[in-house]
Amino acid sequence: MAMISIREERSDDVAALRDLHTAAFGRSVEAEIVDRLRQGCPDLVSLVAADGDRIVGHVLFSPVTVDAGPVGMGLAPLAVLPEYQRRGIGSALVEHGLAALRSRDCPFVLLYGHPGYYPRFGFERASAHGLASHLGEVPDEAFMVLVLDADAMAGVAGVTRLRAEFDESME
Questions:
Q1: Is the pTM of this model over 0.90?
Q2: How many degrees, rounded to 5, is the angle at CA 140 between CA 48 and CA 67?
Q3: Which of 8, 26, 104, 125 has the most CB atoms within 10 Å of its CB?
Q4: Distance CA 76, CA 74 (A)
Q5: 130-144: pLDDT as tens digits
Q6: What residue spans define the domains of the chain?
């Protein structure tokens, strides 16, 4: 993995990212979400993993709200080309992204993800922090939060809401 570098997304990455998400997920829904968020949301953290000039991984963080609480970020999607998976690229993207969010004083990061993968980064069940999903019934173990600022999150509970671009792409 010595040749893999992590950097911020650039405008000339758009087509490669669309192909990456389609290959990683076997469908275009995630690519469409990324495209919609890029167009409608200025406050994104978008990082790519590159092997030389080839983009092999991507992680996107976008704003998430909680009823009467602070604005945090949601981690979604995270994608790595199938032939590059299981090499630590996804973990490196998540770690770089979380470091960037800590430096921006982000109070929390929310995600819907694999309960066997994300706890290694400190993610816990969101329900343990009084957070519920606006999507209604989601598996409790898959709806997770990483509290980055315990003081900002003290007493915060309620329904979390992703950006509308997620709902629009799932219709």
A1: yes
A2: 80
A3: 125
A4: 6
A5: 999 988 778 899 999
A6: 4-170
What is the four-CA torsion angle of 119, 122, 126, 127, rounded to 10 degrees? 80
User: Is residue 97 pLDDT above 90, yes or no?
Assistant: yes
CATH superfamily of this structure's domain 4-170: Gcn5-related N-acetyltransferase (GNAT) (3.40.630.30)
Distance (Å, rounded) from C-alpha 23 to C-alpha 1? 20
- pLDDT tens digits, one per residue of 57-91: 999 999 999 987 889 999 999 999 999 999 999 99
Rg (CA), the chain: 15
- The sign of the CA dihedral 33, 48, 84, 115 is negative
Yes or no: say if 49 and 97 are a contact pair by the CB < 8 Å rule: no
Task: Give the SS3 label for residue 56.
Answer: strand
Residue 130 tokens read as 């009084």
Residues 164 and 37: their CA atoms lie apart, in Å, by 9
What gap in Å lies between CA 90 and CA 131, rounded to an integer?
Answer: 25
pLDDT of res. 88: 94
Q: What is each CA distance from 24 to 81, 102, 105, in whole angstroms?
A: 5, 27, 31
The length of the chain is 171
